[in-house]
Amino acid sequence: MTADHIIGVDFATGRKLWSYVNKNKWSVHANTPIYGDNMLLFTSGYGKGSMMFRLTNGGRAIEKVWELTDIDSRMGAMVKIGNYVYGSGDAHKYWFCVDWKTGEIKYQSNAFGTGNVIANDGLLYCYSEKGEMALVKATPEKFNLISKFPITLGTDQHWAHPVIYQGVLYVRHREAVMAYKVK
Asked: What is the pTM of this model?
């Protein structure tokens, strides 16, 4: 993703294979696309939303499968677990689950503040912009909150993505890093 386009590039030659115009209000596309089942999911905030493309002609072309303006992750990204993607929105302030293949929204929930998400062992680790961490069971039926706790150290925005490494959850909040054993 660039400021105004989604592009496909031949890894071996660097030659551009395809391009799709994808502009948003601020020309910021902070999320990494998700690949699976020969399909690519792109998501942006700032008024854009999400688009799913199928790679065709050996990846040298694309065709749009679905588009959802309501699913507009600004920088919190999404995670794919099985046939579903999970994340939270920018202008549309809720957590969501979307069917990977069809774009059907399975649920929308504002039971927890929006932010960013990572996944491990069928669980979502949701870090809200309001400074809370939640453990959520990844299920397409509902936002199944297991537990939550506040992030009490650090200053400014809660925008850093948490990381899980060797059974430890690391959460950075500006100058502070907290570690929680999760295994």
From this structure: 0.94
